[in-house]
Design goal:
The complex is a heterodimer.
Chain A lengths: L2 E5 L2 E3 L5 E8 L7 E7 L5 E7 L6 E3 L7 E6 L4 E6 L8 E8 L4 E4 L3 E5 L2
Chain B lengths: L8 E4 L5 E6 L9 E5 L6 E4 L13 E6 L2 E6 L8 E9 L4 E4 L3 E5 L1
Parallel strand pairs in B: 1-9
Antiparallel strand pairs in B: 2-6, 3-4, 3-7, 5-6, 7-8, 7-9
Chain lengths: ~120, ~110
């Protein structure tokens, strides 16, 4: 079975940094794109960032471009999201998602990031 | 950037049919995927590539896509289908994944 386990969330002050990790198992990790999707409290789903299976291609939504960096270590079956200059509107549950490049077929349980002083 | 539009809510009686629309310019030329999110849970893929049901999803769920509207249809609706539903596409022009705003399905 596919498993995606996020970690690294927590409370951080505005302007601070966090690194999220997502450890994958149960599938051939290095041939799938990996995606981060977030959901602010009471709001809808928002795609944040994506990375190709090889790691050669990365994608970001405009509001995080220049502040967030996605990366992956295929030897560890882990994808990361480095977040800097965090703002209050980055507060959300962050989901790690497995993708074939089009659809999001498996989701982790999410990790909560709270940006507040 | 590409925009997907969903009604905020749809209500249906148990046993009836619910249709959740997802609007977008020329969406019929894209592949649409649908997610169900029950309260406090992670989203679950319930329909992919317009009308392909993933393993484990009941055949009460079906999808269609044409012109400027894609639809997720749930027949013989059950109380357990009550959830938020999101449509999603990959926009090749902007190289972005896009979600609709979500529709809350209420089973009366």
């Amino acid at each position: 079975d596919v498993q995606l386990l996020e970690s690294g969330g927590g409370l951080v002050q505005p302007g601070g940094s966090l690194r999220l990790s997502c450890e994958a198992s149960g599938f051939n990790f290095n041939i799938y794109a990996m995606i981060w999707v977030r959901q602010a409290p009471g709001k809808g789903l928002e795609w944040v960032s994506g990375i190709s299976g090889s790691g050669d291609y990365t994608y970001y939504t405009d509001v995080v471009k220049g502040r967030f960096t996605i990366s992956r270590d295929n030897s560890k079956k882990t994808v990361y999201l480095q977040m800097v200059s965090l703002r209050g509107d980055d507060t959300a549950v962050y989901y790690c998602v497995k993708s074939d490049g089009m659809r999001f077929d498996s989701w982790g349980r999410g990790t909560l990031v709270t940006v507040s002083s | 950037s590409y925009v997907l539009t969903q009604p905020p809510s749809v209500s249906v009686a148990p046993g009836k049919t619910a249709t959740i629309p997802c609007g977008g310019t020329g969406i019929g030329g894209k592949s649409v995927h649908w997610y169900q999110q029950q309260t406090g849970q992670a989203p679950l893929l319930v329909m992919s590539y317009d009308s392909d049901r993933p393993s484990g999803i009941p055949d009460r769920f079906s999808g269609s896509n044409s012109g400027n509207t894609a639809n997720l249809t749930i027949t013989r609706v059950e109380v357990g289908d009550e959830a938020d539903y999101y449509c999603q596409v990959w926009d090749i022009i902007s190289e972005r994944w896009v979600f609709g705003g979500g529709t809350k399905l209420t089973v009366l």
